[in-house]
Amino acid sequence: MIYKRSLDETPSADGSRIEKTIWSTGAQCSAHIVFEVTSFGTFVNFCKFCSRRWGDERLLDIHYMLKKAKSLRNAASHGACIMNGFAEDGNRCDDLPKQIQNSEMWLKLPKAKRKRWKRNPRMREIVTLFYLFSISVGEGEAKNKCCSELKSFYNNAQRKLYNIPKNNP
Fold first, then answer.
1. What is the 3-state secondary structure (H, E, C) of 37-57?
2. pTM over 0.70
3. Which pLDDT tens digit goes with each residue over 42-71?
4. Using CA atoms, how far apart are residues 66 and 96, in angstroms rounded to an integer?
5. What is the β-pairing status of strands 2-3 and 28-29?
6. Reduced to 3 states, what is the DSSP secondary structure of residue 29?
7. Dihedral-angle region of residue 79 (phi above 0 means left; psi in -120 to 50 means alpha; beta otherwise)
8. H or E stretch including 2?
9. Sign of CA dihedral 44, 50, 55, 58
10. What string of DSSP letters covers 57-76?
11. C-alpha span between 56 and 41 (Å, rounded)
12. Which helix (H) or strand (E) covers residue 28, if one does?
């Protein structure tokens, strides 16, 4: 539970949304209620705070994975910015967390594809997002719907790519 400050205190001068929310909800509120009205970045920072507070290395790893997901979301929301990361190709193969590299999802991919994706910063972000989705969304209707929509997106993209000329598009 997140508790309200004592009555003689007021929200800080910067008036952060979390403080205002906690201040206005009464004596206490659950963390999930706070995250309904705050940014994704605030949630990411909260994970980091909790990981340090309780010495949880796994949660700290999730914090860094969420930062990659946030970076991907930001790139996707700014038009063609998401394409910039695909052009980059580096040798930093160690930037993909061990949990992902050891996951069943990752190990099912052909070795050559894994090596290629590990070198590309944008693909590392996409793989990280898929991994977070696989560990945080339980089996059921919502997950099935998301998977179905993603397959539909890829099928549509594949059809459109087929029509683009290979030379001088």
1. CCCHHHHHHHHHHHHHHHCCH
2. no
3. 888 888 888 888 899 989 999 999 998 998
4. 13
5. antiparallel
6. strand
7. left
8. strand 2-3
9. negative
10. HHHHHHHHHHHHHHHHHHHH
11. 19
12. strand 28-29
Token pair in block for residue 27: 């004596």
Length of the chain: 169
pLDDT in tens, 101-136: 888 888 888 898 888 888 888 888 888 988 999 888
Structure tokens at 103: 């996951």
User: Coil, strand, or helix at residue 124?
Assistant: helix
Cα angle vertex 37, ends 31, 40, to 5°? 85
CA 110 remoteness from chain centre: 24
Nearest CA to 1 out of 25, 51, 167, 137 is that of 25
Token digits for 147?
């998977």
3-state helix, strand, coil in the chain (%, to 5): 70, 0, 30
Determine the Cα–Cα distance for residues 106 and 75; give it in Å rounded to an integer.
23
Q: For residue 149, with 0-12 CB atoms within 10 Å meaning exposed, 13-18 middle and 19 or more buried, which class applies?
A: exposed
Rg of the chain in Å (alpha carbons) = 20
d(CA 34, CA 4): 12
